[in-house]
Amino acid sequence: MYTQVLEMDELTYHYPVMYREIVGMINPSECNVIVDYTLSMGGHTLKFLDLMKENAMLIGLDRDRDSLDIASEKIGQRENVKLVKADFSKIDAVLDELNIDKVDAVLFDFGISMYQMKKIERGFSFANDGPLDMRMDKDVCISAYDLVNNLSESELADIFFRYGEERFSRRIVRMIVSARRDWPITTTQQLAELVVRAVPIRSFKYKIHPATRVFQALRIAVNNELEVIADSLKHAVGRLNSGGRIAVISFHSLEDRIVKHTFKELAACGDISILTKKPLVPSENEKNENNASRSAKLRVAQKS
Ligand SMILES: C[S@@+](CC[C@H](N)C(=O)[O-])C[C@H]1O[C@@H](n2cnc3c(N)ncnc32)[C@H](O)[C@@H]1O
Question: Regarding beta strands 57-62 and 272-274, do their DSSP bridges make them parallel or antiparallel, or are they unpaired?
């Protein structure tokens, strides 16, 4: 049992990105209800719970059942904690179901966790050879396999270009389409090898692996990640008490652009005031400790 717990912690070890800055901005000790819309392993949630009043309530959502189960084990049974498997685009339904009208602070920490990334069978990474899957929610039918093997050449190129900002998208898709005529592309490394064969060698000088952008693009498309952000932020703000705060961490420019524009739109209507004129970024210390935090951007706003 002891060994099992150690292995699980090692496997799921996750730094809650910029948690000091977030705690400083939302002040959990003053909150009666906090919603963590991207619970994952509960990294931020556990920090909040340490600071919250005993009778204050925390609601955690994730659309990944496995992550939710691990978070639930880590947090343990507590009267004041409700963990729900749900997509954060269903914010209103979740809060209605729990009979909660307004909350004091919310956090969105987009993307996937290290745990999801490292689980070979989830197919998010080409570091090991996993199935081409990439679904955060395993109850959803369409996986990366379906997109890669069934979409038309132009649909696939559009995904790589829009969500990966991949400048060799057409060359990559031509390689994929030619390969899939002979056999379906079933694994992450098969796809990564096709990308490597398609992109010109001169582009290898960039720091990132040539398949990184294609994998990011597919993940975003499979999980419909960008389309739900603006509406979810608006609904989350709608549920905040006056003076309540919303904190949002993004990891790439496509996400951050949506957050920035949505905050501006809400501020123009007088719904919020933006507390971070420029996004906050991790300290050098944090970046050194946790390389995965290096591209994080934190934006925070306060409900009027
Ligand atoms: C970067 S992790 C969050 C890490 C967490 N803050 C922590 O410190 O442990 C992002 C999590 O959000 C979840 N997620 C992403 N999009 C979601 C959505 N639309 N609805 C619900 N959960 C989502 C993912 O499954 C993943 O577990």
Answer: unpaired
Is 135's C-beta closer than 6 angstroms to any atom of ligand 1? no
Residue nearest to atom 7 of ligand 1 (CA): 43
Q: Which atom of ligand 1 is nearest to the CA of 71?
A: 9
DSSP string, 186-236: -BHHHHHHHHHHHS-GGGGGSSS-TTHHHHHHHHHHHTTTTTTHHHHHHHH
Range of the domain at 268: 2-111+226-303
116 falls within a domain: no
SS3 284: helix
**Looking at residue 132, which CATH number applies to its domain?**
1.10.150.170
Query: For residue range 199-219, what is the model confidence (pLDDT) as tens digits?
Result: 988 777 667 899 999 999 999
Quick: pLDDT tens for 61-101: 999 999 999 999 999 999 999 999 999 999 999 999 999 99
How close is the Cα of 39 to the center of ligand 1, in Å? 6
By most ligand atoms within 8 Å of CB, the mutation choice from 15, 26, 38, 61 for ligand 1 is 38
One domain for residues 84 and 97: yes
In a domain, residue 237? The reply is: yes
